[in-house]
Design brief:
Blueprint (H helix, E strand, L loop, with lengths): L19 H14 L2 H4 L4 H11 L16 H13 L11 H6 L18 H13 L8 H9 L21 H4 L3 H11 L11 H11 L17 H15 E2 L2 E2 L10 E3 L12 H6 L14 E3 L10 H12 L4
Antiparallel strand pairs: 1-2, 3-4
Helix pairs in contact: 1-4, 4-6, 6-9, 10-11
Function: Catalyzes the transfer of a farnesyl moiety from farnesyl diphosphate to a cysteine at the fourth position from the C-terminus of several proteins. The beta subunit is responsible for peptide-binding.
Subunit structure: Heterodimer of an alpha and a beta subunit.
EC number: 2.5.1.58
């Protein structure tokens, strides 16, 4: 709460300038908390004004007032606006077209037009387009070709750029783009029947090479552990372990990601399709087993549990302002 700016948005710490990256992180964190008290911390009116102040005439977004302009800004702005139900046509006018202009000759997305394709930027660009229901505007086949070639055949992990080393964080930034592409391919009548990357090799890289002996995950062997790589390596592991309603667990089920939801329910939790359709995104059922353990799939647009995304969307959609 102390990191929220009176002018809207969140800063990295109390008293600092609001910035789109910590705004995205703060909104996601409050959605993960999942209580009305947490939701109500977000000043949606001020947040909208903050996002509008960062919007550029060409459709792009600056990361902060007077700051750099790149595709991260578009994704962060669209993600928080969609999940808090403050997205408008005015806010996102020309944004999809600007994002498409960032797709490179390789097939991936760059931070801006004319720059080098990069895994993090590729996810941001594709996810923003899918939220806007504009995924058809990019060259999906070229993006798929680029993505599959970012998984290294020896290590099993993903690299972020051509001729770079693997890095566990790209397990999500590259791996998380695949479920989004699957939905676009399905609309073209080409729905894949399995993952289009080697999910077993990715799990091997994460579980064997990237676990730190005293806890946490690392970029690659020899690197120190940190929260960032722990988060995105685990998120990529979740993507690898789930394909639609199927599970692909490397080794024994001790390697499966799950959380204890403290109940004995076994019925699926279904999304509110009307709201998801209104916001131009999608959710998925969240299966529970007979022991009350919710399988830890992650929403490919927001990297939050799908049930928490649905719960937050229902709450904010009910706040007609």
């Amino acid at each position: 709460m102390r990191c929220q700016s009176p002018s809207g948005g969140f800063a990295g710490g109390p008293g600092q300038c609001p910035h789109l990256a910590p705004t995205y992180a703060a909104v996601n964190a409050l959605v993960i908390v999942g209580t009305e008290e947490a939701y109500k911390i977000i000043n949606r009116k001020a947040l909208y004004e903050f996002l509008q102040s960062l919007k550029q005439p060409d459709g792009s977004f600056a990361m902060h007032i007077g700051g750099e302009i790149d595709i991260r800004g578009a994704y962060c702005a669209i993600a928080v606006a969609s999940i808090t139900d403050i997205i408008t046509r005015e806010l996102v006018s020309n944004t999809a077209e600007w994002i498409v202009s960032c797709q490179t000759y390789e097939g991936g997305f760059a931070g801006g037009p004319g720059l080098e394709a990069h895994g993090g930027y590729a996810f941001c660009g594709l996810a923003a387009l899918v939220i806007l229901n504009k995924g058809h505007l990019c060259d999906n086949r070229a993006l798929l070709r680029w993505l599959v070639h970012k998984q290294m055949p020896l290590e099993g992990g993903f690299q972020g750029r051509t001729n770079k080393l693997v890095d566990s964080c790209y397990s999500f930034w590259q791996g998380g783009a695949f479920p989004l592409l699957y939905t676009l391919l399905a609309k073209e009548g080409c729905a894949p029947k399995r993952h289009l990357f080697d999910e077993r090799a990715l799990q091997e890289y994460i579980l064997i090479c990237c676990q730190y002996s005293q806890g946490g995950l690392i970029d690659k062997p020899g690197k120190p552990r940190d929260s960032y790589h722990s988060c995105y390596a685990i998120s990529g592991l979740s993507v690898a372990q789930h394909f639609l309603n199927d599970k692909h667990i490397l080794g024994t089920y001790r390697n499966e990601l799950y959380i204890n939801c403290g109940s004995q329910r076994s019925e699926p939790v279904w999304p509110d399709w009307a709201i998801c359709r209104k916001l131009g995104c999608f959710s998925e059922s969240v299966p529970l087993d007979n022991f009350g353990k919710m399988l830890a799939s992650t929403h490919p647009l927001y990297n939050i549990r799908p049930d928490l995304v649905r719960k937050a969307m229902l709450f904010f959609h009910g706040l007609q302002s």
